[in-house]
């Protein structure tokens, strides 16, 4: 993996019903999702393919995972130079570890972790010499925006800046706090943002927006296929249109399209 330390390199849908999720997202986003697991005999895992490259995976939540408290949702992977060193640094900064550093033969080394506010994500060092293009700001079918809602924006930013070198790149005021744009150390490209959660009982977490060609058509498909739009399509600064939704299994995601 040649992506810089602190880059978004993979996205993962956790679902109790892989076939239903496959049907839903292929229709809504336009992905091709493997019909069979790439890991026979182990956990069921399918790859999400955009037209020009792989974007992420689908992990089937089995009975043991569900009994352990796992729920449908989307998680992101942040690429790091050294998984073990990053996990040690994360713990020292007040984060927690859900899955310790582990090798996936032929794929890479990863850990499932959480920031001090309880937001779960992965860190990973891929073994492939190829760069990940799972995030591509303008790539159709790719993740186009990464958005954090947190219970403590100042502490959250300090944590991620310490671990990954992220920087703020301006922002805009919201009624409940600043919507702060984020980029990697020394980068010009803004790849996402963070903000305080709107209400104290609102869950914290990352929301990932995937790019589609037509926001109105995608909004209609979400409803037709048993999902629940959490907002109507709305225009955001820069002219794009977005909305949030919940898929039929309960995973929250976002979609973005040109105006």
UniProtKB/TrEMBL annotation:
PROSITE patterns: VOC. This is VOC family protein. It comes from Sphingomonas plantiphila. Residues 7-126, 142-258 form the VOC domain. CDD domains: SgaA_N_like. SUPFAM superfamilies: Glyoxalase/Bleomycin resistance protein/Dihydroxybiphenyl dioxygenase. InterPro entries: Anthracycline_SecMetBiosynth, Glyas_Bleomycin-R_OHBP_Dase, Glyas_Fos-R_dOase_dom, VOC_core. Pfam families: Glyoxalase.
């Amino acid at each position: 993996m040649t992506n810089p330390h602190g880059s978004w390199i993979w996205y993962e849908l956790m679902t109790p019903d892989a076939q239903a999720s496959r049907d839903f997202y292929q229709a809504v986003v336009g992905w091709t999702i493997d019909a069979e697991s790439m890991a026979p005999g182990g956990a069921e895992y399918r790859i999400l393919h955009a037209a020009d490259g792989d974007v992420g995976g689908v992990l089937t939540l089995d009975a043991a995972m569900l009994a352990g408290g796992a729920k449908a949702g989307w998680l992101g992977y942040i690429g790091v130079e050294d998984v073990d060193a990053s996990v040690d640094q994360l713990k020292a900064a007040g984060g927690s570890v859900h899955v310790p550093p582990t090798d996936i033969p032929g794929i890479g080394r990863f850990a499932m972790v959480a920031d001090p506010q309880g937001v779960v994500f992965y860190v990973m060092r891929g073994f492939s010499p190829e760069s990940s293009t799972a995030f591509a700001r303008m790539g159709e079918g790719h993740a186009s925006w990464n958005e954090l809602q947190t219970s403590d924006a100042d502490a959250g930013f300090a944590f991620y800046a310490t671990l990954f070198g992220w920087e703020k790149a301006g922002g805009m005021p919201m009624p409940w706090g600043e919507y702060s744009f984020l980029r990697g150390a020394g980068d010009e490209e803004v790849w996402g943002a963070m903000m305080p959660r709107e209400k104290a009982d609102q869950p914290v977490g990352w929301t990932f927006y995937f790019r589609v060609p037509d926001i109105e058509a995608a909004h209609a498909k979400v409803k037709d296929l048993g999902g629940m739009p959490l907002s109507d399509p709305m225009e955001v600064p820069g002219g794009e249109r977005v909305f949030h939704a919940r898929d039929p299994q309960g995973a929250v995601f976002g979609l973005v399209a040109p105006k």
